[in-house]
């Protein structure tokens, strides 16, 4: 290759990369920031920025800590899913995150729904363990307009009870990275910190950084509601006092990497809160579940958050509308707030702090150097 052709190739790649970042910034701005500002202008009305849509509770894996009780339960119908997208559009919400279970137990369903939502201007967020991903699916979901793919991995090599191993889905991982800029989605790793994978968390963080993708961390939490069929309520590999110092060391390491510029969804404040949380000393925080975020269940009924998916309380539905009464939410959060460290809602709490923080978060979400935010 001549020097001239090499320079042209490098210039073309650089332009494509800048366009990728710019398009992601614009998409995040339209779907996250603008609806939030419009919602602030209409105080008193229910204006969630982010909705979690449970399409399936079934899963192809069996992680010891997971209390999703979805085996053999039919998934959401397309009629309900379309109705949910249309309702969210009508109230100004433009961010749709699939939840499960494993959404890809019905890949065609997810592709069709993503195409419909993306055409309406939604920022579509797809979490998956990656095992059901193949090249044809990546191409199809990329063309459908998915905005973010959240790849859930806990370990490098599979361990008993922790099957979500990066090396088990290495081919899928590489293809997702290869197609990221072509289709314009953002790929990141979602890592659940248990007492069995503390060293793997570091290794996965370094792998992600070297490959130019972000990371998102959750601390393993026992379910707030007792599920009859869940066998590991007493030990889903939750953090015990024996691991406190090791988790502290890991958290300090993650904070150092965050400050060094490693792209992470988690704020430093959220990472620091892990230390108090595992010790049962978490201070009250302004959870925005049922305000900025919400859950739509398989049958079209509502819940304020993941943890309350199994709640028998009536929080509304697509047919009757939302029932997220502020006083009811306040009463609920007075009992659960200090026992939950939801990554999603903690970031929503940060997101709503101020106008400036909201704009900064949108820029950071696109992993761009625009406006000087890295």
Topology:
Layout: H1 3-41, E1 50-54, H2 78-90, E2 95-99, H3 107-119, E3 123-128, H4 135-144, E4 148-152, H5 170-183, E5 186-193, H6 198-210, E6 214-219, H7 244-259, H8 268-278, E7 293-296, E8 302-303, E9 316-317, E10 321-322, H9 326-336, H10 343-351, H11 355-365
Parallel strand pairs: 1-2, 1-7, 2-3, 3-4, 4-5, 5-6
Antiparallel strand pairs: 7-8, 9-10
Helix pairs in contact: 1-11, 2-3, 3-4, 4-5, 6-7, 7-8
Write up what this structure looks like.
There is one protein chain. The protein has a single domain, classed as Aldolase class I (TIM Barrel). It has eleven helices and ten strands. It has helices at 3-41, 78-90, 107-119, 135-144, 170-183, 198-210, 244-259, 268-278, 326-336, 343-351, 355-365; strands at residues 50-54, 95-99, 123-128, 148-152, 186-193, 214-219, 293-296, 302-303, 316-317, 321-322. The radius of gyration is 20 Å and the shape is globular. The model is unreliable at 365-374 (pLDDT under 50).
In sequence order, what are the helices and strands, one letter per element? Answer: HEHEHEHEHEHEHHEEEEHHH
Largest sheet: 8 strands, mixed
pLDDT below 50 for ≥5 consecutive residues: which ranges?
365-374
Could you name the CATH class? Alpha Beta
> Measured on Cα atoms, how large is the radius of gyration?
20 Å
CATH fold type: TIM Barrel
Which secondary-structure class do the elements indicate?
alpha/beta
What is the H level of CATH, i.e. the homologous superfamily? Aldolase class I
Tell me, what's the shape? globular
Give the helix proportion (percent range).
Answer: 40-55%
**Percent in strands:** 5-15%
Number of helices: 11
CATH architectural group? Alpha-Beta Barrel
């Amino acid at each position: 290759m001549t020097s001239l052709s090499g320079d042209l190739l490098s210039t073309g790649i650089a332009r494509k990369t800048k366009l990728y970042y710019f398009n992601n910034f614009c998409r995040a701005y339209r779907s996250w920031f603008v609806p939030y500002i419009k919602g602030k202008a209409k105080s008193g009305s229910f204006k969630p920025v982010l909705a979690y849509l449970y399409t399936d509770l079934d899963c192809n894996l069996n992680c010891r800590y997971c209390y999703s009780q979805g085996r053999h339960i039919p998934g959401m119908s397309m009629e309900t899913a379309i109705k949910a997208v249309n309702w969210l559009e009508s109230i100004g919400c433009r961010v749709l995150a699939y939840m499960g279970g494993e959404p890809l137990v019905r890949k065609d369903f997810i592709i069709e729904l993503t195409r419909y939502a993306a055409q309406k201007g939604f920022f579509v967020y797809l979490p998956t363990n990656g095992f059901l991903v193949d090249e044809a699916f990546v191409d199809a979901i990329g063309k459908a307009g998915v905005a973010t793919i959240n790849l859930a991995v806990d370990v490098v090599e599979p361990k008993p009870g922790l099957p979500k191993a990066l090396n088990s889905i290495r081919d899928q991982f590489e293809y997702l990275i290869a197609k990221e800029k072509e289709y314009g989605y953002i790929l990141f790793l979602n890592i659940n910190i248990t007492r069995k994978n503390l060293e793997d968390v570091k290794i996965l963080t370094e792998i992600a950084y070297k490959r130019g993708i972000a990371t998102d961390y959750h601390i393993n939490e026992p379910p707030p509601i007792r599920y009859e069929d869940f066998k590991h309520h007493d030990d889903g590999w939750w953090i015990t006092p024996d691991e406190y110092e090791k988790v502290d060391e890991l958290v300090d390491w993650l904070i150092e990497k965050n400050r060094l510029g490693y792209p992470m969804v988690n704020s430093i404040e959220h990472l620091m809160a892990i230390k108090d949380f595992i010790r049962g000393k978490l201070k009250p925080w302004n959870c925005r579940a049922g305000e900025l975020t919400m859950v739509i269940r398989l049958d079209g009924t509502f819940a304020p958050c993941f943890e309350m998916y199994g709640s028998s309380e009536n929080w509304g539905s697509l047919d009757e509308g939302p029932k997220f009464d502020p006083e009811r939410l306040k009463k609920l959060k007075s009992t659960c707030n200090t026992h939950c460290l939801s990554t999603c809602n903690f970031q929503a709490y940060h997101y709503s702090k101020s106008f400036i923080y909201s704009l900064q978060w949108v820029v950071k979400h696109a992993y761009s150097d625009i406006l000087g935010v890295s």
